[in-house]
Write a structure and sequence with these properties.
The chain is an alpha/beta fold. It is 43% helix and 19% strand. The radius of gyration is 20 Å and the shape is globular.
Length: 337
Amino acid sequence: MKILAIESSCDETAAAVVEDGRKVLSSVIASQVKEHIVYGGVVPEIASRMHTQAISGVVSKALEDAKVTYGDLDAIAVTYAPGLIGALLVGVNFAKGLSYSTGLPLVPVHHLRSHIAANYITHPELEPPFLCLVVSGGHSHIVAVNSYTDFTIIGRTRDDAAGECMDKAARAMGLPYPGGVNLDRISVDGDPSAYKLPRPHVDGSEYDFSFSGLKTAVVNTIHNAKQKGLEISIPDLGAACIETVADCLVKNTVKAAEEYGFKKIALAGGVSANSRLRARMKAVCEEKGWELYMPELSLCGDNAAMVGAQGYYEFLNKNVAGLELNAYATMPIDEQI
């Protein structure tokens, strides 16, 4: 079964053709980083306009690279939630137009479910159930993946997401956009013990996260140093910030795995590309004898291949939408339209 997938939830316009949920026949991504870097972050209005300009060409290139026509496809999958509403609407409306003109079924796909499904491409042997830590610029979740289309949220952030915390910390340190990636690069040789930062927790919710206090602590550390005329070591402070985030993420995931009896653990989302988080999770899983699954680095960020992977299982589960399909800026992973 071949599925054309479309992704436009933030600042990447992407299309892919995926076969049977695991084999990527093509994957095309048009990045907008150069357009947003001058603003230090994604500007929603610009993102929407860039998607509009790129989407037709990206989809055509995906079909060309896969050496298929619309007649070879079985369905069209598209990210419809969550994300920037204007950006999502570009992809959703384009997919609806294709569905109407070709007669192909339209499959709505949740963005976070897609990130989890990136692991099915990297690890064809992976099957639910398993526990997944989903971490990105807008989300930090511990999710029980009960089946390909059944999810239970065990823990989530109460305020800033892990990626958002690192992005804003990077901006305060004067690093360019995208902050989290550059923070990871510059802190590789940093000393995480050089600065003491708080490890926030949520009282009464042992699996939830809170990163707003950590972000504030990093900003205050920089401001206090400047007021005293002291020099800040960006590699060390960056390493301390990342180590603190990774510590919180790993500890809560381990607690959840032990409590719910999971021995298969997966990482997903943009922050799953972070080198320290990957190393920490690998070490703890080796220590406990658990299986660890992580998407290859090219599949950690937003892409359409992961949409096609999840779209395959949504389609098998008869999750098909009509032309009334809308986009949603927010929607929990365990809900479905």
